[in-house]
From TrEMBL:
Binding site for substrate: R36, Q37, A38, G39, R40, D85, Y161, S216, H332
GO cellular component: cytosol
Family annotation (HAMAP family): URO_D
Name of protein: Uroporphyrinogen decarboxylase
Gene behind this protein: hemE
Similarity annotation: Belongs to the uroporphyrinogen decarboxylase family.
Lineage: Bacteria, Pseudomonadati, Pseudomonadota, Alphaproteobacteria, Acetobacterales
Subunit structure: Homodimer.
Amino acid sequence: MTSNNFSSPQKTSVKKPLLHTLQGHEVWPPPIWLMRQAGRYLPEFRAMRAKADFLTRCMTPDIAVELTVQPIRRYKMDGAILFSDILILPWVMGQSLAFVEGKGPVLEPIRSEADLKLLDKNRVLEATRPVQQTLSILAKELPDVTTLIGFAGSPFTVACYMVEGGGSRDFAQTRKMMLQNTPLFQKIIDLLVTTTAQMLSAQIRAGAQTVMLFDSWGGLLPPQEFRQFVIEPTRQIVEFLRAEHPSVPVIGFPRLGGVMAVEYAEKTGVNTLALDTVTDPTKIASMVPSKLALQGNLDPMILLNGGDALVKEATRIRDSLRGRPHVFNLGHGVMQQTPPENVALLVDSVRNV
Ligand code: 1CP
């Protein structure tokens, strides 16, 4: 059986079920898309990897369009997330960036005022033009029912990579700067607020119908710093976007934010709160406004594992959030070793009511 045989048509008559849900309406069964749905677990993705390095794939519209569309073709996901990366932003401002096999991103770290001065925020709109071009092609080519998702990293998470110079378990250098040279760290955050807001606004003008802010590392911070460096910058970005594009919903993902996710939802103005794996969906549902859409939160490991346990857990999450706007998704990205047929089984289970 090919994977496409699992996908049944949407039972709803809404034109774009995902967009409708993000705007605060319940759709049943809930729309589904997955973080990192374009990725190495797909053979057609691995075939494209041989053709160009990662940054070239992000910045070549034909390739980025193809990689965005692959999971839509295979699974008829309700959302198509732009193929790009959160680190494109510091890179277009002039910070050196390479994706090293087996190591991940490597950047020339920003540790001083002088390092920061080397970045040019005025280059962002021009230098991300290929990304905007990718989105405008996608807006024309995607099926009518599919919602096109733009994205960026949150200022704190992008700052983590910029200061640390790459991935880390604890981002110790970054948090040290935050405590020892708060004015410099705040300047980096402020630069990222302005440029992220401009970049997302350009993504929307090019055709993105919603945008998501990935805050992968905000959960490292204690409450006071979480308010200052996660909630407040996110609030400023949402305020800017709301003024420019009042009807475009914003999804916020304060990963591992714990109980701070409630305050994040309340103060930032996001339309949708994306939940990590550790958050109990029904508990958080009782703590946030009923119009706020929730997104998530299946454990990617359960998806990788597959079988009856996957069907059971997916159905449980779906049913537990019935009665409020819910977008079915994972609590983090699809893992590389995930069998593609498990994703088909998941989509089928969520849609089969
Ligand atoms: O070809 C490859 O294998 C490169 C792997 C890869 C991919 C497929 C990277 C490098 N980025 C991406 C695409 C990507 N990244 C998307 C595309 C759309 C989709 O979801 O299908 C998105 C939304 C991201 C977002 C992203 N990049 C985040 C936030 C979400 C998360 O995972 O927490 C983060 C932290 C990054 C940085 C990054 N880029 C790539 C890697 C391996 C990493 C993580 C580095 C680390 O901390 O170790």
